[in-house]
Amino acid sequence: MNSMKKVEVENWPVETGRYIIGDKKSCIAVCTLSSLDIELSMYNIAIVGKCVTENVGMEKIIKNIISNPNIRYFVICGVEPKGHYVGQAFKCLVEKGLDADRKIIGALGAMPIIKNVSDEQIERFKKQVEIVDMIEEENTQKITDRINELNDLGAFDGAMESETVKTINADYDASKDATADNSLDDGFFTIFADKANKQIVVEHYTSDKKFDCRIVGKTAEAILGTIVKMGLVKGLYHAGYLGKELKKAEIALKTGCDYEQDKELDL
Protein backbone atom coordinates (compact mmCIF):
# COMPACT_ATOMS: atom_id res chain seq x y z
CA MET A 1 0.00 0.00 0.00
CA ASN A 2 1.21 3.49 -0.81
CA SER A 3 2.17 5.96 1.92
CA MET A 4 -0.48 8.70 2.12
CA LYS A 5 -1.41 11.50 4.48
CA LYS A 6 -2.69 10.22 7.82
CA VAL A 7 -4.28 11.80 10.88
CA GLU A 8 -3.83 11.12 14.59
CA VAL A 9 -6.89 9.62 16.30
CA GLU A 10 -7.33 9.76 20.07
CA ASN A 11 -9.81 7.95 22.32
CA TRP A 12 -10.60 5.50 19.54
CA PRO A 13 -12.49 3.22 19.08
CA VAL A 14 -15.46 5.17 20.43
CA GLU A 15 -17.72 2.11 20.83
CA THR A 16 -17.26 -0.99 22.97
CA GLY A 17 -17.25 -4.46 21.43
CA ARG A 18 -15.28 -7.60 20.67
CA TYR A 19 -12.43 -6.41 18.49
CA ILE A 20 -8.64 -6.23 18.17
CA ILE A 21 -6.87 -2.93 17.49
CA GLY A 22 -3.87 -2.77 15.16
CA ASP A 23 -2.45 0.29 13.43
CA LYS A 24 -4.88 3.19 13.98
CA LYS A 25 -3.48 4.88 10.86
CA SER A 26 -4.25 1.90 8.63
CA CYS A 27 -6.87 2.30 5.91
CA ILE A 28 -8.51 -1.07 6.61
CA ALA A 29 -11.22 -2.30 8.99
CA VAL A 30 -12.24 -5.96 8.96
CA CYS A 31 -15.44 -7.65 10.12
CA THR A 32 -15.31 -11.45 10.41
CA LEU A 33 -19.08 -11.78 10.94
CA SER A 34 -19.67 -14.91 13.07
CA SER A 35 -16.25 -16.48 12.40
CA LEU A 36 -13.80 -16.53 15.32
CA ASP A 37 -10.92 -18.50 13.81
CA ILE A 38 -9.74 -15.96 11.22
CA GLU A 39 -6.38 -14.74 12.55
CA LEU A 40 -4.97 -11.81 10.58
CA SER A 41 -1.72 -9.91 10.94
CA MET A 42 -2.57 -6.49 12.40
CA TYR A 43 0.40 -4.54 11.03
CA ASN A 44 -1.69 -2.98 8.24
CA ILE A 45 -5.17 -3.28 9.74
CA ALA A 46 -6.81 -0.71 12.03
CA ILE A 47 -9.43 -2.94 13.64
CA VAL A 48 -10.76 -6.50 13.35
CA GLY A 49 -13.90 -7.75 15.04
CA LYS A 50 -16.91 -10.01 14.71
CA CYS A 51 -20.52 -8.87 14.32
CA VAL A 52 -23.62 -11.03 14.68
CA THR A 53 -26.48 -8.50 14.86
CA GLU A 54 -27.89 -6.49 11.98
CA ASN A 55 -28.83 -3.56 14.23
CA VAL A 56 -26.80 -2.63 17.33
CA GLY A 57 -23.68 -4.44 16.10
CA MET A 58 -23.79 -2.65 12.76
CA GLU A 59 -24.34 0.68 14.47
CA LYS A 60 -21.20 0.24 16.56
CA ILE A 61 -19.11 -0.62 13.50
CA ILE A 62 -20.35 2.43 11.60
CA LYS A 63 -19.57 4.75 14.51
CA ASN A 64 -16.08 3.31 14.98
CA ILE A 65 -15.26 3.63 11.29
CA ILE A 66 -16.48 7.19 10.76
CA SER A 67 -14.64 8.36 13.88
CA ASN A 68 -11.33 7.26 12.30
CA PRO A 69 -10.89 9.03 8.92
CA ASN A 70 -7.84 6.89 8.11
CA ILE A 71 -10.13 3.91 7.44
CA ARG A 72 -11.10 3.76 3.76
CA TYR A 73 -11.87 0.05 3.22
CA PHE A 74 -14.28 -2.18 5.11
CA VAL A 75 -13.51 -5.86 4.48
CA ILE A 76 -16.42 -8.17 5.31
CA CYS A 77 -15.42 -11.83 5.53
CA GLY A 78 -16.32 -14.96 7.46
CA VAL A 79 -19.60 -16.82 7.79
CA GLU A 80 -22.89 -14.94 8.02
CA PRO A 81 -24.53 -15.31 11.46
CA LYS A 82 -27.52 -17.60 11.12
CA GLY A 83 -30.75 -15.67 10.70
CA HIS A 84 -29.10 -12.24 10.78
CA TYR A 85 -27.13 -11.82 7.52
CA VAL A 86 -25.04 -8.90 8.75
CA GLY A 87 -22.80 -8.73 5.67
CA GLN A 88 -25.79 -8.68 3.35
CA ALA A 89 -27.38 -5.98 5.53
CA PHE A 90 -24.28 -3.77 5.21
CA LYS A 91 -24.40 -4.08 1.43
CA CYS A 92 -28.11 -3.25 1.37
CA LEU A 93 -27.57 -0.26 3.64
CA VAL A 94 -24.99 1.19 1.24
CA GLU A 95 -26.89 0.33 -1.94
CA LYS A 96 -30.53 0.87 -0.90
CA GLY A 97 -30.57 2.80 2.39
CA LEU A 98 -33.37 2.88 4.98
CA ASP A 99 -37.15 3.05 4.67
CA ALA A 100 -39.39 5.41 6.66
CA ASP A 101 -39.23 3.10 9.71
CA ARG A 102 -35.40 3.02 9.53
CA LYS A 103 -35.40 -0.59 8.37
CA ILE A 104 -32.61 -1.51 5.95
CA ILE A 105 -34.25 -1.94 2.56
CA GLY A 106 -33.78 -5.45 1.20
CA ALA A 107 -32.02 -6.83 4.30
CA LEU A 108 -32.80 -10.48 5.02
CA GLY A 109 -32.12 -10.47 8.77
CA ALA A 110 -34.67 -10.77 11.53
CA MET A 111 -34.48 -7.16 12.72
CA PRO A 112 -32.38 -4.91 10.42
CA ILE A 113 -33.37 -1.62 12.06
CA ILE A 114 -30.90 1.27 12.51
CA LYS A 115 -31.99 3.73 15.21
CA ASN A 116 -28.78 4.94 16.82
CA VAL A 117 -26.95 6.14 13.71
CA SER A 118 -28.14 9.30 11.95
CA ASP A 119 -28.70 9.72 8.22
CA GLU A 120 -25.68 12.04 8.18
CA GLN A 121 -23.50 9.36 9.79
CA ILE A 122 -24.70 6.75 7.30
CA GLU A 123 -23.89 9.06 4.39
CA ARG A 124 -20.45 9.67 5.84
CA PHE A 125 -19.89 5.91 6.14
CA LYS A 126 -20.93 5.38 2.51
CA LYS A 127 -18.59 8.10 1.25
CA GLN A 128 -15.63 7.24 3.50
CA VAL A 129 -15.27 3.51 2.93
CA GLU A 130 -15.49 1.00 0.12
CA ILE A 131 -16.94 -2.38 1.10
CA VAL A 132 -14.73 -5.30 0.09
CA ASP A 133 -17.10 -8.28 -0.14
CA MET A 134 -15.51 -11.54 1.01
CA ILE A 135 -18.62 -12.86 2.74
CA GLU A 136 -18.41 -16.61 3.52
CA GLU A 137 -14.62 -16.60 3.00
CA GLU A 138 -12.68 -17.97 5.99
CA ASN A 139 -9.33 -18.71 4.33
CA THR A 140 -6.84 -16.45 6.09
CA GLN A 141 -4.38 -16.39 3.19
CA LYS A 142 -7.02 -15.39 0.65
CA ILE A 143 -8.27 -12.61 2.92
CA THR A 144 -4.70 -11.41 3.56
CA ASP A 145 -3.90 -11.41 -0.16
CA ARG A 146 -6.99 -9.30 -0.89
CA ILE A 147 -6.09 -6.84 1.88
CA ASN A 148 -2.58 -6.49 0.47
CA GLU A 149 -4.03 -5.55 -2.92
CA LEU A 150 -5.82 -2.48 -1.54
CA ASN A 151 -4.25 0.89 -2.32
CA ASP A 152 -4.26 3.42 0.51
CA LEU A 153 -6.33 6.48 -0.43
CA GLY A 154 -5.16 8.64 2.47
CA ALA A 155 -7.31 9.99 5.27
CA PHE A 156 -10.87 11.06 4.52
CA ASP A 157 -11.64 14.74 5.07
CA GLY A 158 -12.01 15.09 8.84
CA ALA A 159 -13.31 12.88 11.63
CA MET A 160 -17.00 12.75 12.51
CA GLU A 161 -17.91 12.83 16.17
CA SER A 162 -20.48 10.40 17.53
CA GLU A 163 -23.23 11.64 19.81
CA THR A 164 -22.26 11.59 23.46
CA VAL A 165 -24.23 9.14 25.58
CA LYS A 166 -24.11 9.56 29.34
CA THR A 167 -21.86 7.16 31.25
CA ILE A 168 -22.91 6.29 34.80
CA ASN A 169 -20.50 4.93 37.38
CA ALA A 170 -22.12 2.07 39.32
CA ASP A 171 -22.65 3.22 42.91
CA TYR A 172 -25.03 0.66 44.38
CA ASP A 173 -24.32 -0.36 48.01
CA ALA A 174 -26.27 -3.43 49.12
CA SER A 175 -26.09 -2.33 52.76
CA LYS A 176 -27.66 1.08 52.06
CA ASP A 177 -29.69 1.13 48.87
CA ALA A 178 -33.20 -0.23 48.50
CA THR A 179 -33.98 -2.33 45.44
CA ALA A 180 -37.60 -1.35 44.81
CA ASP A 181 -38.50 -2.35 41.28
CA ASN A 182 -40.36 0.60 39.78
CA SER A 183 -39.30 0.36 36.14
CA LEU A 184 -41.74 1.42 33.42
CA ASP A 185 -39.67 0.08 30.56
CA ASP A 186 -37.22 -2.81 30.55
CA GLY A 187 -35.73 -2.39 27.11
CA PHE A 188 -32.66 -4.57 26.68
CA PHE A 189 -29.01 -4.62 27.72
CA THR A 190 -25.70 -5.48 26.09
CA ILE A 191 -22.85 -6.57 28.35
CA PHE A 192 -19.08 -6.47 27.71
CA ALA A 193 -16.05 -7.46 29.77
CA ASP A 194 -13.58 -4.61 29.16
CA LYS A 195 -10.25 -6.33 29.87
CA ALA A 196 -8.14 -3.28 29.07
CA ASN A 197 -9.80 -1.19 31.78
CA LYS A 198 -10.70 -4.13 34.04
CA GLN A 199 -14.36 -3.24 34.23
CA ILE A 200 -17.77 -4.45 33.12
CA VAL A 201 -19.59 -2.26 30.58
CA VAL A 202 -23.38 -2.45 30.27
CA GLU A 203 -25.37 -0.51 27.68
CA HIS A 204 -29.11 0.01 28.02
CA TYR A 205 -31.42 0.36 25.03
CA THR A 206 -35.08 1.34 25.41
CA SER A 207 -37.89 -0.83 24.09
CA ASP A 208 -37.80 1.14 20.82
CA LYS A 209 -34.06 0.33 20.50
CA LYS A 210 -32.73 3.80 21.37
CA PHE A 211 -29.35 3.88 23.13
CA ASP A 212 -30.17 5.23 26.60
CA CYS A 213 -27.07 5.02 28.80
CA ARG A 214 -23.87 3.16 29.59
CA ILE A 215 -23.12 1.79 33.09
CA VAL A 216 -19.60 0.79 34.10
CA GLY A 217 -18.36 -0.91 37.24
CA LYS A 218 -16.09 -3.54 38.72
CA THR A 219 -18.63 -6.01 40.15
CA ALA A 220 -21.85 -7.65 39.03
CA GLU A 221 -23.57 -6.62 42.27
CA ALA A 222 -22.73 -2.94 41.90
CA ILE A 223 -23.94 -2.78 38.31
CA LEU A 224 -27.13 -4.80 38.82
CA GLY A 225 -27.98 -2.76 41.92
CA THR A 226 -27.50 0.43 39.93
CA ILE A 227 -29.75 -0.86 37.14
CA VAL A 228 -32.50 -1.70 39.61
CA LYS A 229 -32.08 1.57 41.53
CA MET A 230 -32.44 3.54 38.28
CA GLY A 231 -35.63 1.67 37.43
CA LEU A 232 -34.28 0.23 34.19
CA VAL A 233 -35.59 -3.29 34.80
CA LYS A 234 -38.95 -4.40 36.18
CA GLY A 235 -39.26 -8.12 35.48
CA LEU A 236 -37.84 -10.56 38.01
CA TYR A 237 -36.76 -12.93 35.26
CA HIS A 238 -34.98 -10.12 33.41
CA ALA A 239 -33.23 -9.07 36.60
CA GLY A 240 -32.17 -12.67 37.22
CA TYR A 241 -30.84 -12.95 33.67
CA LEU A 242 -28.81 -9.77 34.11
CA GLY A 243 -27.40 -11.04 37.39
CA LYS A 244 -26.27 -14.27 35.74
CA GLU A 245 -24.64 -12.54 32.77
CA LEU A 246 -22.98 -9.85 34.88
CA LYS A 247 -21.48 -12.47 37.18
CA LYS A 248 -20.10 -14.32 34.16
CA ALA A 249 -18.53 -11.08 32.94
CA GLU A 250 -17.00 -10.49 36.38
CA ILE A 251 -15.55 -14.02 36.44
CA ALA A 252 -14.15 -13.52 32.93
CA LEU A 253 -12.33 -10.37 34.06
CA LYS A 254 -10.88 -12.14 37.09
CA THR A 255 -9.77 -15.26 35.21
CA GLY A 256 -8.77 -13.70 31.87
CA CYS A 257 -11.11 -15.89 29.83
CA ASP A 258 -13.28 -14.48 27.05
CA TYR A 259 -16.83 -13.37 27.76
CA GLU A 260 -19.60 -13.23 25.18
CA GLN A 261 -23.16 -12.48 26.24
CA ASP A 262 -25.46 -15.54 26.23
CA LYS A 263 -22.51 -17.91 25.73
CA GLU A 264 -21.02 -20.28 28.31
CA LEU A 265 -17.66 -19.30 29.77
CA ASP A 266 -14.76 -21.41 28.54
CA LEU A 267 -12.86 -21.94 31.79
Give your account of this protein's structure.
By secondary structure, this protein is α/β, with parallel strands linked by helices. The protein folds into two domains: 19-149; 167-255, no CATH class. 27% of the residues lie in helices and 17% in strands. It has six helices and nine strands. Helix 1 packs across helix 3. It is globular.
In short:
The protein has helices at 56-66, 86-96, 119-128, 140-149, 220-229, 236-255; strands at residues 19-21, 28-31, 47-49, 73-78, 130-135, 167-169, 188-194, 199-205, 211-217.
Strand arrangement in the largest pleated sheet: 1-3-2-4-5
How many domain regions?
2
How far apart lie the N and C ends?
41 Å
Please give the largest β-sheet.
Answer: 5 strands, mixed
Strand tally: 9
Q: Low-confidence parts lasting 5 or more residues at pLDDT below 50?
A: 179-184
List keywords for this structure.
single chain; 267 residues; alpha/beta; 2 domains; five-stranded mixed sheet; four-stranded mixed sheet; 6 helices
Topology:
Blueprint: E1 19-21, E2 28-31, E3 47-49, H1 56-66, E4 73-78, H2 86-96, H3 119-128, E5 130-135, H4 140-149, E6 167-169, E7 188-194, E8 199-205, E9 211-217, H5 220-229, H6 236-255
Parallel strand pairs: 2-3, 2-4, 4-5, 6-9
Antiparallel strand pairs: 1-3, 7-8, 8-9
